[in-house]
Amino acid sequence: MSTGSSTSTQGGSHIRLTSHPGQGAGGAPVIHWGAADPKERGPLIGTTTNRSQRNVIGTHSGSYGVYRALAVAAGNLTKGHRADLTNTAPTERIGPYPQWADPGKIVSIDPWGASVAEVFADELAQGMDIRPTIAVTQAHIHLPEVRQALAFQRLSVDGKFLLEDGSAAVTKIAVEPVWWLPGVAKRFGVSEAVLRKTLFEETGGMYPELVTRGDLEVFLPPIGGQTLYVFGQVQDLADPGVTLTARVHDECNGSDVFGSDICTCRPYLTHAIEECIKGAQAGGVGLIAYSRKEGRALGEVTKFLVYNARKRQVGGDSADKYFLRTECVAGVQDMRFQELMPDVLHWLGVKKIHRLVSMSNDKFDAITGSGIEVGERIKIPDELVPADARVEIEAKIAAGYFTDGSVPDATQLAATKGRDLVE
Amino acid sequence: MSTGSSTSTQGGSHIRLTSHPGQGAGGAPVIHWGAADPKERGPLIGTTTNRSQRNVIGTHSGSYGVYRALAVAAGNLTKGHRADLTNTAPTERIGPYPQWADPGKIVSIDPWGASVAEVFADELAQGMDIRPTIAVTQAHIHLPEVRQALAFQRLSVDGKFLLEDGSAAVTKIAVEPVWWLPGVAKRFGVSEAVLRKTLFEETGGMYPELVTRGDLEVFLPPIGGQTLYVFGQVQDLADPGVTLTARVHDECNGSDVFGSDICTCRPYLTHAIEECIKGAQAGGVGLIAYSRKEGRALGEVTKFLVYNARKRQVGGDSADKYFLRTECVAGVQDMRFQELMPDVLHWLGVKKIHRLVSMSNDKFDAITGSGIEVGERIKIPDELVPADARVEIEAKIAAGYFTDGSVPDATQLAATKGRDLVE
């Protein structure tokens, strides 16, 4: 296989193609995923400028790597720019925790991703192009729903977690995906070979190294990552004696930003933030883990096609047909793969979630299945379910979502209807 | 070059690698980008199951193609699933407009992407795997800021655009990126060969076909797309006689969803929505074009690293150093490339934006440079600029952002300070 040919059919200049086994392997640090000592684990190097250093497939910044390439092509970004990491270090120290040294617990993020400038200082000084895949900072966040909770006296200002101006003080953490392919394969119960082959073929041939470079075990996929918002002390997340209120939320731009009334996403998210603030004020800690998985990771085009199919079907948009319509268009009901979601909880050292603000059985099963205890499950208050979202919530409850009420039967599901399209 | 070798180093089964020039070219429809007749333009086929039909590089759903691959690997999605497009057609007819037939006006989306089921019905019946890249639906959106505007009587219910329950009726449109590489190269003033080579190299070797298949001119990049929200009649967007209020907004999850006070993103967005509703009520039409370009398309990890560097620098977070810190970490001040942004406006037939709710000179220049007239520019009201965002807005005004006030000088910039980190 010669994907690394150095000739080109485009332009006249030399093109460095996909790397080969053996090529430059001498200079690239070896990765021992799950090693407790970061030096033994080794740095991840996804540089695009020094092939001999590369020890991963793909490159940094998730899908924004494509924009970085565009910036180089357009002449805005100097090829080979190295980030000046001065003053960028995390505002909070997180870990290391024992979970970091368990290659079964964390397979889709790099536990050392926030601290590369510290733990790989020597390698950076030697000129290796090592980049943070996690960044930790602080923020004040203002949500109109929190101000409303203040006005209705459901929340009160304490000056530390919730400030006089209605803003909440948080630590926030951005996390880039880093997939250790043997571990990801195991998580899904398939062979690594099948995973690699399918990732390659079903993306239309992205990264031939997935199939040609079995020696490269780490893949930086061009997908969105996660953002974590912590209310209270970050270190308390690892202490099962401190009450943890948490929501794992999957992106829904149409509701999270624009407030579409067809689903419960933003109302449930802002309810969870309110619960997190209350929890921190009561001596606990709160966590929102926000994943970029728009439309159940089907993307928004598919999502909107499904909305139309739901609303136009014979009999209208009813809860009993909710999942069917997604499956007709997308082939699956959901592609979010909660199997990888708990990784970030293990990175934070979480052992117990006392109050899980989610009704999703997929999320619950993934969290508990990964060895994290879950106490109470907090459902969205009925009065927060928007007009057109009743179809979704009833369908999900019938399919196994947590409820403390009754599970709707077939007749009730057929009778729960959404708004028609007006064309 | 033999990237299409059929042998494998992984597993025992046959792996279909990247296609070659000549391979299967007989069966794949030819694309004539910019042809007025969709039949002459030809369908775009990014199928992962029938190589002989493929006439693009990459595959559908942007970065969610990786999740689709995961779904096949995990056995959740049947390989080769074909979408059932029954009842998914757009709720509004858009175009065709003369701009669709101008290959200089639209290079990064497929103007026929919403109507494939109609215009390529014959090809679909013949078994070609043609997928929509645009979906058009309707929604009611509820924003707390709109309810507040109602409470303060800045807005009033009309029963059509703004409803009794405080929700706004919109048409919303999801758009997937589709890059015609010759046109994208021209837009950035580089040769197509350089663009292809750089996209390949600087993504760490994504899609060798970028350099091996000069005959494939269309690339479906694994990046986020756009969502359009229209207030009023979609068809009015193409009529320069109808007053158009518009904002082109780039994603900022930290503000748009969580209300971080370090920037003006959500306040400016919700102000624009208020202006769009007012505009529709006054007989005009409103448009929000929301692009998935988190953190100036640098991604959120880089963004948070920059926040830390800004707040820890000697002298604190001051407006005169605002751009410098981003450049130190990322190598550029911005990677959003407004050059491609106007495409979606041309797709909607827009010839004039009467009221542009944006102060960005990059956006203004890109829109007017593409031949769209801009009337008034609407700045964010001072009272909506959050506490910690003064640094950003002053730095941007000094750098050329639109203002109807005075441009700060060096002394004023140095004196405009943000909050310190509390560590």
UniProtKB/TrEMBL annotation, chains A, B:
Residues 230-378 form the GTP cyclohydrolase II domain. Its EC number is 3.5.4.25. It comes from the Bacteria. SUPFAM superfamilies: RibA-like. GO terms for molecular function: GTP binding; GTP cyclohydrolase II activity. Residues 1-13 have a biased composition (Low complexity). Gene3D superfamilies: GTP cyclohydrolase II. The keyword Hydrolase applies. Transmembrane segments: none annotated. Residues 1-49 are annotated as: Disordered. Keywords: GTP-binding, Hydrolase, Nucleotide-binding. GO terms for biological process: riboflavin biosynthetic process. The keyword Lipid metabolism does not apply. Residues 13-202 form the GTP cyclohydrolase N-terminal domain. InterPro entries: GTP_CH_N (IPR022163), GTP_cyclohydro_II (IPR032677), RibA (IPR000926), RibA-like_sf (IPR036144). Signal peptide: none annotated. This is GTP cyclohydrolase II. It comes from Azohydromonas caseinilytica. The lineage of its organism: Bacteria, Pseudomonadati, Pseudomonadota, Betaproteobacteria, Burkholderiales.
